[in-house]
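[Automated response] Your request has been received and processed.

Submitted sequence:
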Amino acid sequence: MPNAPSLISLMARATRLYRAVLNDLLAKHGINLSSEMLGVLVELWQSDGLSHQELSQRLKKDKGGMTKLITSLERRALIVRQPDPEDGRRKRVFLTSTGQALHQQVQPLVHKLRQFTLDAIPAEQQAKTKETLAKIIANLETEKDA
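Generated structure:
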């Protein structure tokens, strides 16, 4: 099929659409966050106290973009930056009690969206897709490091 979208185009479209739906879902529930801000919070919910650099690496964000996200979350009183006890030049990012509490509100929404997104896709097909995407990511990371 000459006019069929490529796998890369479909991946990009799915990512954009997922983010748009997630942004709409958050707004619908009165949660003033973007999907990118939520990504930072998810990382901190899993490992509180990460450095800017660790967050940038995990989220594949450049330093400037990460600083903007962190500043925005700090303005919303969801996180605080504190000096690293081992290296005062480096800052660590910690959740506030408000940021921690937000997890209870957001987690069920994200879980429901993930279930809906994968609804009617058999487990075997999901596993094969994960395997394919892992290979694509590995190829891109190898190329990026080259």
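Summary generated for your ticket: Residues 123-145 form the longest helix (23 residues). The first strand starts at residue 50 and ends at 51.
If you did not submit this request, please reply to this message.
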